[in-house]
Design a protein that fits this description.
Length: about 190
């Protein structure tokens, strides 16, 4: 299976303290300072959409957003450009990029991420249909990835919807909370730009 367009979302612990309208300036500042290794282009405000994509930092290879879909605020990394490599390498790349953004938000803006919950979404229904067969095919890769991310700590993976209109989505919840630095270390991600 050619897995492309991986999305990873890490949830915010204190969503009530986040004023999304302030993040247009934050994300524009990131563009000016070139804080990420990739090219960041623009910011889009979707705050008018209830439980929607929120504030989006648009990049050439990927988008970053403070996403509030399903009423759960978090940082969503949306990989747009195709990547070569194994599913593991693509998951590590996406999680690493998301966690670097999470670290910046925590350090510069006081946002606190919960460190034990997340989501993996595949934003390509053609390559990766939302079916139980897809989950069965990807579950070993997902488990290997989360075994590494959570360093062997117990966790649960939940695949809950085989609705073909929805993107393939798996929720993860670890028994223990981790800080961002530990998660980056567990991934062995070099974060030179963060």
């Amino acid at each position: 299976m050619n897995v492309q367009h991986i999305n990873i979302k890490f949830f915010i612990e204190n969503p009530e303290a986040v004023k999304l309208e302030e993040y247009s300036g934050v994300f524009n500042n990131w563009i000016q300072r070139r804080v990420m290794a990739e090219l960041l282009i623009d910011v889009a405000d979707y705050l008018h959409v209830h439980n929607g994509p929120g504030m989006i930092l648009i990049g050439h290879e990927a988008d970053y957003s403070l996403d509030n879909r399903a009423g759960r605020l978090g940082l969503l990394y949306n990989r747009k450009a195709q990547l070569d490599g194994s599913v593991q390498e693509k998951l590590v790349q996406a999680a690493g990029a998301a966690l670097i953004a999470v670290r910046l938000l925590e350090k510069e803006n006081g946002v606190k991420f919960n460190g034990h919950e997340g989501q993996v979404l595949i934003n390509d229904r053609l390559l990766v249909p939302n079916t139980s067969e897809t989950f069965a095919a990807l579950e070993p890769d997902l488990r290997t990835f989360f075994d590494g991310l959570y360093n062997g700590t117990e966790y649960t993976l939940t695949y809950s919807s085989a609705d073909p209109r929805e993107r393939f989505t798996v929720d993860v919840k670890a028994a223990t909370s981790f800080d961002v630095e530990t998660l980056l270390k567990n991934l062995s991600v070099e974060a030179a730009h963060a």
